[in-house]
Amino acid sequence: xxxxxxxxxxxxxxxxxxxxxxAVARTPAEAGEAAARFLAxxxxxxxxxxxxxxxxxxxxxGVKLAGSxxxxxxxxxxxxxxxxxxMTVRKVLVGPAxxxxxxxxLGAILDRASRRIVLMASEEGGVEIEQVARxxxxxxxxxxxHPLLGLLDYQARALAFGVGLGRAHLRDxxxxxxxxxxxxxxxxxxxxxxxxxxxxxxxxxxxxVERLACLDAKITLDDSAxxxxxxxxxxxxxxxxxxxxxxxxxxxxxxxxxxxxxxxMVNGAxxxxxxxxxxxxxxxxxxxxxxxxxGAKADxxxxxxxxxxxxxxxxxxxxxxxxxxxxxxxxxxxxxxxRARQEREVPMVVRIVGTNAEEAARLLEEARFETAATLDExxxxxxxxxxxxxxxxx
Length: 394
Ligand code: GDP
Ligand code: MN
Hints:
four-stranded antiparallel beta sheet, about 35% helix, seven-stranded antiparallel beta sheet, binds manganese (II) ion, binds guanosine-5'-diphosphate
């Protein structure tokens, strides 16, 4: 689950990282008020940033500076409603603008290959790391945190030297690097990225001082660990979530939308993957991965059918149920009920074996469903039906 920058900033601040203050505004007027407060507190200018769950906001025009409350209001008006990579901006972050001396990249990821938290740093701050990795991979420095000892000071220092950070900022950098790892562990995150981590210039007691500040924050949380963090679940931004994902979660259905034309409804993740493989072997492309889970009742079957049919690309549906805890007759009733209420007519092939399969077969036959005895047969029939529906191509 991705969270908004403003929320990511809170999680970084909670680990003691240097994050500048901010406010979130939903209207230009709110942005103007927030700007007036920061300007009254001594900021020369404010920064206004689109809050959307995609990167590259700066390049897209979603990050702007303003020197007065009125200007902030105007800039916020330009950013709110803007489309950035398909996402509509509904909120902006407002904060005192930093005076940037130099930008760095610092990010922590969960590296599945080494099964460790890997910290990456680069001198190419402000540039997306994927691009750095493509163009100048040697510019990325990495260290892996020890699973028990965590990130050690010398490792963080090695990163700092790697990116050529001056000695004056070494202690702060070590603290920030360790804070990133702590943020990962505390929140069960997959990714914690600060880009840019910047050297900023500020007025100090005796003239200007330079220090490190986290000017952007991107965090992805591990969905499977969310039950351990009920307070993080509320950071989910439903405005930006695919409605199909929201509905699937509400019904405890594992659903991943894909590009093909054969909607699949299966119980069990392994069987769902096998079903997708067989659809491909039969010459089709699955429209989704969908696991209705064990013991699904008729209402969950109906919900799964709605999800599948909501995808306009679906030309045929393949239902493959291996009844164990799940009862075949329950699924059959769910299918009959769903078809009676569905808005769109799509050919469907059903294979149900296992618990109460005979009862299921009787119900399906009565309701005139097309059935198949084996999975291969079901896949072939579904692909053929999709082919016919699409006028010859699956
Ligand atoms: P992203 O483009 O979505 O990653 O958004 P960022 O928050 O990283 O902002 C993009 C760029 O805007 C940064 O790399 C900075 O160069 C610039 N920027 C962001 N915040 C400030 C700020 O407070 N002051 C100044 N002068 N520039 C900023
Ligand atoms: Mn950034």
